[in-house]
Amino acid sequence: MADPAETPADLPPCPAAQSADTGLLPPELRGWMLLLAATGAVEQRLRSVVKERLDVSHDEFLVLCLLAEQPREGLRMTRVAELLGRPKTRLTYQVACLQHAGLVTRKTVCGDKRGVEVALTEKARRLLREASDALSETVTQALAHVVGPEQRAALSELIPQAVARGEGEPGSEPQTEPEAGRSL
């Protein structure tokens, strides 16, 4: 449960709970702004933990996270760039740094001399497993500082432990099924 002293009292209400005629922005845009704020808070807090635990940059960490969710054979570099919304040249540099650290492998795709596939090494898998509790806790703490109980309940479908900080707070129980018409 979040320490009330650590949780800002001026958190905005959940966009889905506001009526359509409140404020200038439609609920979808208010929800998007909340999501951007939450993402920024998580990124800011993760940067130091990622550097300390994995000794990589935040952008390199995103590559590792993406590859961690893929089959062991990895992904083509073009697909990684596409999924992360990064220019291929920047991704090439990041992957080179990760390869130098022994965290990824690169190989030419069979039958396509221009295609390059990147995959996690066992070292990277081990480091991610070892750091997972600290990374998860960092995300949970960051969200607790930006979103209130209603937002945590709404995010629980996307980020399973996001509501853990709000346990015991009124209206913060995880919902098993999303309410009809509810959106961030």
Descriptive account of the structure:
There is one protein chain. 50% of the residues lie in helices and 9% in strands. The protein has six helices and three strands. A three-stranded antiparallel β-sheet has the order 1-3-2. A hairpin with a 2-residue loop joins strand 2 (104-109) and strand 3. The model is unreliable at 1-7, 15-20 and 165-184 (pLDDT under 50).
Question: Mind sketching the topology for me?
Answer:
Layout: H1 27-54, H2 58-68, E1 75-76, H3 77-84, H4 88-100, E2 104-109, E3 112-120, H5 122-146, H6 149-155
Helix pairs in contact: 1-5
List descriptors.
6 helices, 50% helix, 184 residues, mainly alpha
Question: Summarize this, please?
Answer:
With 184 residues, the chain is mainly alpha-helical.
